[in-house]
Amino acid sequence: MVINIPTTYDKVFKQYLTLVNGLLSKEKRLTNIEIDVLDKMLYVNNLYLHLPKDKRDIIIFHKNTHDKIRESLLNMSYSSFSNILGRLRKKGIIDGRSLKINVPIIDGKIKLEFNIDIS
Length: 119
Hints:
This protein is mainly α. The chain is 48% helix and 7% strand.
């Protein structure tokens, strides 16, 4: 089955995370605010795809980037933002100062394939 979903770069990461979130185990499932923070981080990551991953991680985890993300999320406090990053680390999405999730955009499209093994 193929489902075509028109979108924009402003919305695609949140849509992707929301879709994939329903497939995660209860322990790994993301809250709405975690999705919002991760959406912004993935957007920044996408802006710098021309750079090596280690350079992108430096930009994503820079204080100025975090401040802009917090401001875009209704002036979220620094402590709330840090708590969310901590929860994302516990879920394995962030490792130290490295983003461990990638949205596979190829030629302006995201393709997801599901193989479901029934035993």
